[in-house]
Amino acid sequence: MDNMKLNMQYIDYARHMRNRIFLFACLIMVSVYAIAQEKGKSVTGTVTDSNGESLIGVSVKVAGAPIGSVTDIDGRYKITVPSTTSVLQFSYIGYVSVQETVGSRSIINVKMREDSKVIDEVVVVGYATQRRANLTGAVGTVDIAKQLESRSLTDVGRGLQGSTPGLTVTTTSGRIGTTPKIRIRGDQGTLLNEDSGASQPLILVDGVEVTDLNMVNPDDIENISILKDAASSSIYGSRAAFGVVLITTKSGQNSDKFTATYSNNFAWTSPIGLPKMAKSYESAAMALEAWRRNNPNDSEFVGDAGMKWDNDAIERMKEWERNFGGMNLSPEMVAGRDFEITDKGLRFYRSWDPFDMYIQNGFIQNHNLSVTGKSGKTSYHLSLGYMGNEGVLKVNNDQYDRYNVTFKTETEIAKWLKVRSQLMFSRTVLETPFTYSSSTYDPLYYIYRWPVIYPYGTYNGQPFRSALTETAQANKNSDATNNMRFTLGATLKITKGLSLEADYSYITNSRLRQLRGGKVTAIDFWSGDINNLTTYTASSYDKYDQYNYLTNHHTANAVLRYSKEFAGKHNLSAFAGFNLEYEDYNYLNGEARELLDPSKHTISTTSNNEGTRFVYGSQSDWASVGFFARINYSLKDRYLLELNGRYDGSSNFPLDQLWGFFPSGSIGWILSEESFMHSLQPVLSFAKLRASVGSIGNPNIGADRFRAILSSVSSGWSINNVNMTTFGLPQTLAKGFTWENIVTSDLGIDLRFLNGQLGASFDVYKRVNDGMVVQGNEMPSAFGASAPYKNIGELTTKGWELALDFNHTFANQLKLRVNANISDARTVITKHPNRTKSLNGSNYEGRVLGEIWGFETDRFFTADDFNPDGTLKADIPDQSRFLEYSGTSGIASYLPGDIKYKDLDGNGVIDRGDFTADNHGDLKVIGNSTPRYEYSGRIGLDYKGFDLDIFFQGVGSRQIWASGNLIIPGYQFGDGVYYAHQTDYWTPENPDAFYARLSKMNQPSRYAESGGNYMPQTKYLLNMSYCRLKSLTLGYSLPTNLIRKAFLNKVRVYVSGENLFTIDKLGDIPLDPETNTSSGDGGTQGFGRIYPYVRTWSFGLQVSF
After folding, report:
1. Are 144 and 163 in contact (CB under 8 A)?
2. 364-405, pLDDT tens digit by residue?
3. Cα–Cα nearest to 645, from 694, 691, 580, 690
4. How far apart are CA 861 and CA 872, in angstroms?
């Protein structure tokens, strides 16, 4: 009985346990099924903007998991999430990120709004990226979409003008194929080797240096950062002593979506700022009047190039203008009408418009095609670009072309290893007519040089000697550059927060420049013979020159990175690495004269006679290596610290000075995160104080400064008819010659108001070139050599920068963007061994770079200033030392209408003292040629697919004392040329004129006392300040719901204009205010007589699918 009862209890227990096990198994199966279902949960949806328009390419990710997707052409997405607790993260550039917990939903639609809080923007900095909010250095960024896109740009450099405060971009002319000058925070950072760009910032494209931004396709650029202070740029070492322009190009994407983009731009250019010549008879009368001031009994002006006339000829010029002016005559000149040979010689009467004959409107076209996608675990980006720029030369047109190819890949070999590659190729070709003159004076210089009666036509079908004829008969020069870069790199994820990156780049740059000379045959009337048809060009121009330049550059970088977050409030990131660069340069020039066949330009098709073939060449190389480290620490995302160190070595220095250590550091305090600041929100939504200090070495002080090199020279002694070579004395050396040390300190504040809609950023800075390399004190003549270079100078730049921005979307979805910035810098030599302090352009302690010394103009002399015998009255200060009358040029004596200078020191004599800064007499600083108060502004509007962008840029203060015929009437008197604006000169009937009484001048030097009425002075100092409507763009993007039917992501059309309107203070002087002095553009004598700047109108199309 007991056993039966026990068995029954056992059976009940077993049945009960079986039921429990079955129930448990069922629960497990249900749970497994549920988990399986959750792992496979699919979520779909649509992402739109605040207008309900679909957003294409929005990143959709699962938080904390390697799962992601992107929206398609209709803004739709599909993603599989691991569980109902998963969180989807939606992010898109320019929009506020959105997070959504999945829960039980399978359809999640998201509406994203634009982000006006730029503090969350990620900024590319040295070897890393940082949130803008956490930046402690001075870093500027460029709005690529607004600054470079939709503009008919031929190079990136010009597009950067006005893009960010502290960045200065200047040009000397509108010449095609040239590279603008780029500087960061001041025009000059060192005094040595400046002609070769010693103060130029380091320009990096994807971490590798480029020396010419003309090689870069603007359409390839993803972002640009401008590193301005030592704390941000010192990580790049000694090559970054004067800042860094950091360019990142577009790459492949992580999604499987394939994207193709095509854009084009067609632009028509027209020259602006062209000089207008005085009428033939006006110019001739002015030249004759100036001639007769010194020679009152002469009845004839006798100039250069066969230019002669008298009063009778002037009357004939007037007659020709009355009868034939404005008529479209044949270029064939008619004897008796257009010219004649009189008993006094050859006379010309016909007027010409050489600018219209030489210059036309130009044309620019841009085409860009890119494809981006991912295949398996490899993402790729391929871009092709072409830019063609037809210049404004009507005769023998100039042309500049650029071709670009970029191919980038990145492959995930394993979760811990990624490899990448990049191939960049760029080719530029510039074709220009051969010039039968020096490189300083091109045909435009000579076309501006002569009066309008200069014969630019033909006689008996034959052309006259002129720059037009030379250009028409010239062969085409070509200048072709090929630049190829190949990069291999890898990223190794060692463990969480620790990774290693390594990259190697090889760059080869080859340039072939060919000058194809020849002969010019024309009527050489300069001797007065109208029938002198001859080959008048010098035999030295009958040649072929071939210049070959080859540069090989190797760059290797390795960076070990570490990042860690502690206790939820400590964030630490650090990296250490090395950078190695080596470059070799080879130059070879072969010149051959006496062309055997004028149509073939090769070395082999020239004469092999003795003395007709020449070879020149050079070779150089350099190397640098640097070891660097950076530590970034933040506490509570509120207190920020950054420390940098770089140990650099350069082959530019002797072995005992080969290495230098250059540290930098910066701190930041985000005040808006403090509890006592919260009450100011949302009026003050963000506030940050930052400060930095650091040093960078500058090795760019010229080659072989520490080597005692003997230079070879011709001795003048001839042996067997050979001029023997000898050597000069070796360069003297100073012990301890070492790096220039560039020390920069910066203090800045960043503010944002109204929930981030309004922003302001302000910086003040100081940059000191400590130990600047300059030549020591002048040595006694008995020493036999010049003084050695030493680290005994100092150059100090102080400046400030202000940037403002405002972004707002109105209730009707009208979007407004406003940006403005202004900056200023002043550079002073604070240490220099020169004690004479001469004002002849030399450097000395206390000199402000760019300063212009001159006299203060008082007024014109009047008849009341003179005694009856023509002498000046006793109470008029004596300024006779500026007359410089040689019997044929200068001013013999002052007359009413001449310039009277102010006697600033009150000693009764107008003079320059010792012409030194310590004893300068009546001279004073009257201006500065350095651009000051540079500013820019942008206004943008977007509404229902339409977009409008207005960008203006200008300079608040810049002066130039220029010379040459365009600026100073009759500067080269023998040319006999005057311009329309110079007809406003003093006469008894025009006492309130702008220009002084006419006088015969002989190219007075800026530093000589022979300037007469045109000594450097306030009255004729050029005010080059300006405000220019740099670009205006109006675009329209077709609605998404319309173009998606054609499987297109985006279609935008636009029209754009460049240099549309300018406000300046040059008055009637036909000069572009951006003009600067430069060799190759007429030098100082040809100031303003240059290849013109252009106004541009363009049309463009942007399509992606």
Report:
1. no
2. 999 999 999 988 899 999 999 999 999 999 989 999 999 999
3. 694
4. 10
CA distance 71 to 571: 33
Confidence band (pLDDT; 50, 70, 90) for 254?
low
- In angstroms, the CA 454 to CA 523 distance is 13
Burial of 171 per CB tally in 10 Å (0-12, 13-18, 19+): buried
**Which stretch of DSSP H or E encloses residue 471?**
helix 467-473
Residue type, 226: I
Q: What CA–CA distance (Å, rounded) separates 883 from 893?
A: 7
Phi first, then psi: give them for residue 911, nearest 5 degrees.
Answer: -150, 180
Residue position matching structure tokens 């407004």: 816
Q: Cα separation of 619 and 584, whole Å?
A: 8
Q: Are 854 and 926 in contact (CB under 8 A)?
A: yes
Rounded mean pLDDT of the chain?
88
- DSSP string across 582-615: EEEEEEEEEEEESBSSTT--SGGGB---TTSEEE
CA distances from 239 to 201, 626, 923, 1097 (A): 8, 10, 40, 39
Dump pLDDT digits (tens) for 693-736: 999 998 887 767 777 777 777 777 777 777 777 877 777 777 77
**Lowest-confidence pick of 330-344, 434-448, 579-593, 983-997:** 434-448
Q: Is the pLDDT of residue 117 over 80?
A: no
What per-residue confidence (pLDDT) applies to 409? 95
Packed helices 280-294 and 311-324: angle between N→C axes, nearest 10 degrees: 170
Sheet holding 110-111, edge to edge: 76-81, 41-48, 110-111
Q: Is the dihedral of CA 592, 597, 600, 605 positive or negative?
A: negative
Which token pair is 237?
A: 């070492």
Choice between 50 and 579, residue whose per-residue pLDDT is larger? 579
Yes or no: say if 981 and 1070 are a contact pair by the CB < 8 Å rule. Answer: yes
Going by C-alpha positions, the residue among 182, 178, 145 that lies closest to residue 166 is: 182
- Identify the three-state secondary structure at position 743: strand
Q: How far apart are CA 89 and CA 102, in angstroms?
A: 11
At 837-858, the pLDDT tens digits run 999 889 999 999 999 999 999 9
The one-letter code for the residue type at 802 is: L
The dihedrals phi and psi of 532, each to the nearest 5 degrees, come to -85, 70
Question: Are 176 and 398 spatial neighbours (Cβ–Cβ below 8 Å)?
Answer: yes
Nearest to 577 by CA among 561, 566, 593: 561
Q: Are 349 and 329 in contact (CB under 8 A)?
A: no
pLDDT in tens, 804-816: 999 999 988 899 9
Residue 137 has phi, psi (to 5 degrees) of -100, 175
Q: How far is it, in rounded angstroms, from Cα 628 to Cα 344?
A: 79
Q: CB within 8 A of 784, min separation 6: which ones? A: 729
Q: What is the Cα–Cα distance from 381 to 646, expressed in whole angstroms?
A: 34
